[in-house]
Q: What sequence folds into this?
């Protein structure tokens, strides 16, 4: 195996699942996306780059009218912008003036520093000097280099009552089991960052907490993490015959609670209730997420959410083909799926693992499936974009990635498979930037292409005789 290549940060690698090599120890911390993005931007070239085309402006999705004012820590929410990896939020005050002709003129001026957000939400800590009842704000999307990719949203008016009772608790962003493709064997927990938080405590429970928004650990706690940033990838498979719950508490630099725990949110994946379903198995391309900042619980980034038939997602970010073989029995067999859609190998090949080793792992996965009455359906491996991978993660890609992927795909072509790659490569044979900003993890347009290919082929797949898998 070639020398392991460093990521922007080890935390970034874990969270995005961008190719942790076999044998590398996985940290339980979540990523520092603000730090990682800033470092990644320093590695991105700017000379000769085209200015990005401006996309449709974001839409404000949470409003505070005079009849329902915000408290001293308003939560600002807006819609996602394609191509944005972060957002620039301006906090404004209205200035009423008169122009040269004496006519009334309105302008908006910042009264706080611009805020940066890496999700489509922000908890605002109004300054002590703010004593008004109204402020204004607007937001725009930015790319990896901090350049605008959208116009600003319309200016939004926010009514505030800074004297109303307020108890700090984090605002969750990850909601499970509410639509197609929204089950994860390896959950990811996201929330809006809390002002002043130095770290967080994420608690996994097997029942609702006895003190819902308190500060003490619950008697129902079965696991916990202490990430530095507002996201946590669960390192353990969560399956069982009753719901799990997750919640998060913000902590200051001394480890003291800032407010209380967030509301506890449920998620579930019961093997007994999922017998015979179609399972998805693989690495981060199948787990979900993309555009650097978006996690697998941003469901637009999950191809499973666009499929025309139900699935369970048993993928894990960071998997190599060897790691997939190692966990297959414990993670897949309890569900006794009828089919397993397998996409794995990108992390191995781009790190320099020989194609023959990946093919051997695919053969082993097929053998494991068939020995347990499961029909494997392989997906072809998409191309890569090494320049974008370098810009996003400061990681080099193996020189022979083209021939290695082609060799593995040649093997996949001899199996029951679905080719998801048509239209993904640019004129240089590399993954189109508009399909994957980071050169690896397909964004919603790419995930929709994957799903369309699977949907179009699925009826034919299910009509195949058993002998097709021999």
A:
């Amino acid at each position: 195996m070639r020398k392991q290549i460093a990521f922007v940060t080890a935390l970034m690698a874990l969270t995005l699942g961008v190719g942790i090599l076999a044998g590398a120890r996985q940290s339980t911390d979540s990523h520092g996306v603000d730090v990682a993005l800033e470092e990644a931007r320093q590695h991105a070239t700017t000379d000769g780059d085209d200015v990005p085309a401006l996309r449709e402006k974001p839409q404000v999705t949470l409003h505070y009218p005079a009849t329902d004012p915000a408290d001293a820590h308003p939560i600002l929410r807006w819609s996602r912008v394609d191509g944005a990896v972060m957002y620039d939020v301006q906090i404004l005050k209205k200035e009423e003036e008169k122009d040269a002709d004496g006519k009334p003129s309105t302008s908006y001026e910042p009264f706080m520093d611009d805020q940066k957000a890496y999700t489509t939400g922000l908890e605002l800590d109004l300054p002590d000097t703010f004593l008004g009842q109204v402020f204004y704000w607007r937001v725009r999307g930015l790319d990896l280099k901090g350049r605008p990719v959208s116009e600003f949203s319309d200016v939004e008016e926010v009514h505030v009552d800074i004297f109303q009772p307020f108890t700090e608790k984090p605002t969750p962003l990850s909601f499970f089991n509410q639509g197609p493709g929204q089950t994860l064997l390896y959950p990811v927990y996201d929330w809006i960052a809390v002002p002043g938080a130095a770290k967080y405590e994420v608690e996994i429970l097997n029942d609702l907490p006895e003190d819902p928004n308190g500060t003490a650990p619950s008697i129902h706690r079965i696991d916990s993490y202490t990430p530095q940033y507002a996201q946590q990838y669960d390192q353990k498979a969560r399956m069982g015959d009753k719901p799990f719950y997750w919640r998060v508490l913000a902590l200051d630099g001394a480890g003291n609670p800032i407010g209380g725990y967030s509301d506890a949110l449920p998620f579930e994946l019961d093997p007994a209730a999922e017998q015979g379903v179609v399972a998805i198995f693989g690495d981060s391309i199948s787990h979900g997420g993309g555009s650097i900042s978006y996690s697998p619980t941003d469901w637009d980034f999950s191809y499973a959410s666009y499929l025309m038939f139900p699935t369970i997602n048993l993928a894990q970010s960071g998997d190599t083909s060897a790691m997939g073989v190692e966990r297959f029995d414990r993670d897949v067999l309890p569900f006794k799926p009828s089919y397993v859609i397998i996409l794995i190998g990108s992390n191995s090949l781009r790190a320099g693992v020989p194609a023959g080793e990946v093919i051997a792992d695919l053969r082993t996965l097929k053998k494991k499936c068939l020995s347990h009455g499961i029909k494997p359906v392989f997906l072809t491996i998409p191309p890569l974009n090494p320049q974008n991978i370098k810009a996003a993660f400061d990681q080099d890609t193996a020189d022979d990635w083209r021939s290695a992927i082609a060799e593995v795909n040649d093997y996949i072509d001899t199996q029951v498979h679905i080719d998801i790659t048509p239209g993904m490569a640019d004129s240089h044979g590399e993954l189109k930037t508009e399909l994957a900003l980071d050169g690896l993890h397909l964004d919603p347009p790419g995930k929709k292409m994957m799903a369309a290919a699977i949907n179009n082929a699925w009826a034919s797949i299910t009509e195949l005789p058993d002998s097709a898998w021999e």
